[in-house]
Amino acid sequence: MAVLALRARRPSGSSPLAKSVRRIGLQKLLSTRICDLELRPTGALAECVEQVISEMRARGITFVPAFYLGDDDFWTSDQAVSVNIPWYLATPDLWRLVNDHLFEYSREEVLMYLRHEAGHALCYAYGLWRRRDWVAMFGDFRRPYRDVYGPNPWSRDFVRYLHWTGMYHYAQKHPDEDWAETFAVWLDPLSRWRRRYRDWQVALAKLEYVDRILEVEGVCRGSPPNARLGLRVPYTEIRETVAEYFDIGDEVDKDLIEYRKDLLDIFPRQKPPRQPPPGVLGRRAVPAGRLAARRASPRSPPRDRFGHTAQSLSAARFIQQNQQMLVDRLSGWIESADKRVISRFLRQLQAVCTDERMIVPENQRTEKLVELTIVATWHVVDGIHRLS
Question: 16-20, 153-157, 318-322, 365-369: which has the minimum mean pLDDT?
Fold first, then answer.
C-alpha cells in the first residue's frame, strides 16, 4: 500500500523513569483481559472512522453505521446496520501490537475496509437490495453466499477495491459484495472513478447507478427503515488477556518449531525489501499528485512494505481471511475440539507467518488452503491426544 500506518513513531524519552513507565504500562496492558479494557477508538482508528463518516455526509448521506469494537476482522451482519471493527485497532498501542505480532494493517487499508462495510450497512438500512433497478444492476441478493468462488480475472464488469488488499476480485463473489465494492470506489475521494473506469463499460454503469440513486436522488437521506443491530462477538465477551490473544511472552517450544517447519513447506517466503543507502532514514515522501496518479490506473498494483502486489498475499492475512471457515470446520470434524483453542492456534500460525515473511501466490490460493487445512487438522488432533 502507498501509506503505512503508525510506521513513524514518536521519539521516546531516554530517561530510565520514562522507560520504566512505558514498560509497566505495556505489562499491565498485556495482562489485562480484553473484556476489561474499556476500549474506544482513539488515534488513527478514530480518525479513519471520522473520515469515512465525513465522506458519506459530503455526499448527502445522513446515515451513520453503528461501528463497534469486536473480534477479528471487519464484518457486517446480514441485513443489519452494525459494523464490526477488530478490537486490536482501537488504540495506537494495540495497533502496534497487531502489526508486530500478527500482520500489518495500514491506515489506507483500514479506510478501504470501513468504506466497504459502510456500503453493506447502508444497503441493509435502506433496503436498497430490494429495488428492481438494484437487482438488474448487481443481481439477486438472495443468491447463495459461498466462501469459495471462481472469479474471472480479466472481467471488466466489476470494480477492484479490496482486491488491492489481497481479497482478489472480491466484487465477483456475490451481488452484495459487488454493491459494497462499487460503493467504496464511489465514496473514496481519491478513486477518480470516472477516469479510472472509463473503458470498463459495465463497472462504470454500476458506479453511475450508485452516483444517481445516492447523490442525485438522495435515497439514503433521513432515518432508515431498518435499524437492526447484529453484533458478532463484541470485545466485551472476549475473556482472554491481550498476551494470550497474541500469544506473547511464551518461550519458543517444540510445537512452534514444528509449526514453522510445516508452514515453510506450504508457503514461500517473500524476498526482503531493499535497504536504503547508509545515512538515509525512512522513505522519501511521495508528492500527493504522484500518489493520486498511481492510484488512478487499475493496472498499477500498489505494494506494501514487503513488496507484495496483487499477485501475492501475506500468509498471515490469508489465514485470517479463512479463519472462521477453518474454526467451524475443524471444530465440526474433530470431537472435543474447542473453537477458542483452535482460534488461538491459528493466531500462532499467523505470528509465525509474519515473522518468516511468508506469502501466498494468487494462483495457488485454493491449493494452499487445502494444504493449510490438512496441517491444521493434524496439529489440532495431535494437541487433543496429548492432553487426553
Answer: 16-20
Q: What confidence category does residue 278 fall into, taking pLDDT thresholds of 50, 70 and 90?
A: very low
The burial class, CB within 10 Å (0-12 / 13-18 / 19+), for 55 is middle
**What are the residues whose beta carbons fall under 8 Å from the beta carbon of 310, sequence distance 6 or more?**
163, 164, 166, 168, 301, 362
Lowest mean pLDDT among 264-278, 310-324, 366-380: 264-278
Q: How many helices (H) and strands (E) does the chain have?
A: 15, 5
Q: Where do we find the cell 498499477? A: 300
Determine contact, residues 72/320, Cβ cutoff 8 Å: yes
DSSP per-residue string spanning 275-331: PPPTT--S-PPPPHHHHHHHHH-TT-----TT---TTEEEHHHHHHHTHHHHHHHHH
Cα(185)–Cα(112) distance, integer angstroms: 9
Q: How far is it, in rounded angstroms, from Cα 241 to Cα 246?
A: 9
Burial of 54 (0-12, 13-18, 19+ CB in 10 A): exposed
The pTM of this model reads: 0.71
Using one digit for the tens of pLDDT, what is the confidence trace for 332-349? 898 888 888 899 889 889
Choice between 122 and 338, residue whose per-residue pLDDT is larger: 122
Cβ neighbourhood burial of 318 (10 Å; 0-12, 13-18, 19+) = buried
For residues 36 and 125, the answer to whether their CB atoms sit within 8 Å is: no
Question: Which residues, 6+ apart, have CB-to-CB distance to 320 below 8 Å?
Answer: 72, 73, 102, 103, 350
Cell of residue 355, nine digits = 515473522
Q: H or E element: which one contains 84?
A: strand 82-86
